[in-house]
Structure formats: C-alpha cells, structure tokens
C-alpha cells in the first residue's frame, strides 16, 4: 500500500493546528521540542535476508541514530496530561560478523591492530504521530520544587515509513573500508507501536527516556524475497528538549 507523504504531513499539521487553537484559549496547553539519540535492534537472531544461509554467521547488533520532534500537551488535570505531536525518527537494526581476512591497523601507532567486522545495518526512517497520557508523579505525591516535574507516560504511536535501506561495508585489499547502501522496498508503509517513557523537567529544560516496540512485522513478508523478514523492532530513545508555555 503506497501512501502520499505530503498528504500525511498535511493531515498531521491540520490536526495539530486545529487542536492547538482550540485548547490554547483555555490556557491549558504547552509545547515541547526535543532532540534525542535512538538505539534500535530487531528481535530476530538471524539477519533478515532473502537467502538466510548467506548471513548465518552474522550476530545481532544495534543501530544508533537520531530523532527530532515537537509535541502539543494538554493539561487534563493537575496530574494527567494528554500529549500528541509529530516526530522524525531514524530506527532499524544491525548485524555483524568478524572478517578473518582483514584487520584494522592503528593509523597513529602503526602497530596496534583490531578485528575487522562486516556489518549489515537496516535503516528505517519514520514520520511518527504519538498519542500518550502523562502522569505527573511529583504532583501526585506532592514532592519536588514548584518548577520540577517527573512525568511517566504510555500510549501508542503511528509511523509512516519514508525511507528503508540496507547499508553494508566492503573490504578490498590495499584500500580503505567502503560503505554501500541498497533500497529495501519491503518495509510496511504504516507501523503501529506501543510507547512508554519518563520525562523530567525543571523550568524550560526537559530530559527524557523512551522505549518503543512495534506491533506486527516491520517488513511485509508477503513481498517476493521477503519471506525471511519477519522481525519486530525495539527502540530506546534518550534526549533533551525545551518546554514552551
């Protein structure tokens, strides 16, 4: 199923602007903008690949990347907040295996060596629309300062896939390590995920940690050549942001 990316973005902006204008008049809305690091991995022990025997020696690893987002937060009460927004998130998974034919030589000392590895890095890029409910623990227990808050939250997030690639490195005798990338067209266009996290703030500064797990397969296993792509994805995000009131 192919979905127009511009249409999705327009829909998200219309919903966000309409919600903001409605609740802002009541003085119960505030905004957050954040930037974070994501560490993602697949639950499948063997790398998803058209020919499983070709990647049997690869062990599961993770993939680190970035995310950027903004949220509209509506105060339901002194303790509960409803939050939604738009997020650009790079996720995926990784696998690696030792390459016995090559080693890394330290360019400074010229003598120290390290093992060389072949990597498979599955890059998935999403535009996400999260909807979560936050519980302010500090206010519920009446602890902390007047400006500090600790929110625990949970909910769901819908993601539109806007990019899917497989990156891998190649070693050639007498040359530097090279990285190449191929498009993977089998990624599901829409992905639904559960999300839980914690968010600490003091004044305009915010720090957060978040865990996301998709519901269902990341790839469409009915696509020819994708029968071995039955994987789920787990993502841990850590970052900081600014609160705008």
Automatic annotation (TrEMBL):
Keywords, in A-Z order: Signal
PROSITE patterns: PROKAR_LIPOPROTEIN
Domain spans labelled Outer membrane protein beta-barrel: 25-219
Signal peptide start and end residues: 1-25
InterPro entries to which the protein is assigned, alphabetical: Beta-barrel_OMP_2
Keyword Transmembrane helix: no
UniProt name for this protein: Outer membrane beta-barrel protein
Lineage: Bacteria, Pseudomonadati, Bacteroidota, Cytophagia, Cytophagales
């Amino acid at each position: 199923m192919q979905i127009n990316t511009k249409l999705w973005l327009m829909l998200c902006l219309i919903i966000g602007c309409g919600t903001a204008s409605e609740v802002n008049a009541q003085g119960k809305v505030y905004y957050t903008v954040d930037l974070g690091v994501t560490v993602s991995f697949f639950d499948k022990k063997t790398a998803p690949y058209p020919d499983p025997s070709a990647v049997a020696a690869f062990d599961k690893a993770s993939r680190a990347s970035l995310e950027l987002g903004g949220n509209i937060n509506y105060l339901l009460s002194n303790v509960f907040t409803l939050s939604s927004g738009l997020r650009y998130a790079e996720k995926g998974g990784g696998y690696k295996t030792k390459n016995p034919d090559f080693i890394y030589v330290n360019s400074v000392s010229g003598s120290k060596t390290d093992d060389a590895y072949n990597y498979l890095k599955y890059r998935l890029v999403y535009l996400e629309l999260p909807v979560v409910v936050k519980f302010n623990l500090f206010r519920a227990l009446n602890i902390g300062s007047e400006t500090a808050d600790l929110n625990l939250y949970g909910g769901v997030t819908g993601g539109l896939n806007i990019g899917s690639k497989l990156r891998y490195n190649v070693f050639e005798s007498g040359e530097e390590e090279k990285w190449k990338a191929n498009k993977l067209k089998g990624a599901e266009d829409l992905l639904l995920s559960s999300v839980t996290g914690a968010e600490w703030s003091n004044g305009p500064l915010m720090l957060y940690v978040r865990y996301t797990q998709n519901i269902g397969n990341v790839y469409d296993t009915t696509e020819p050549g994708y029968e071995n792509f039955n994987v789920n994805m787990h993502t841990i995000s850590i970052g900081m942001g600014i609160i705008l009131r």
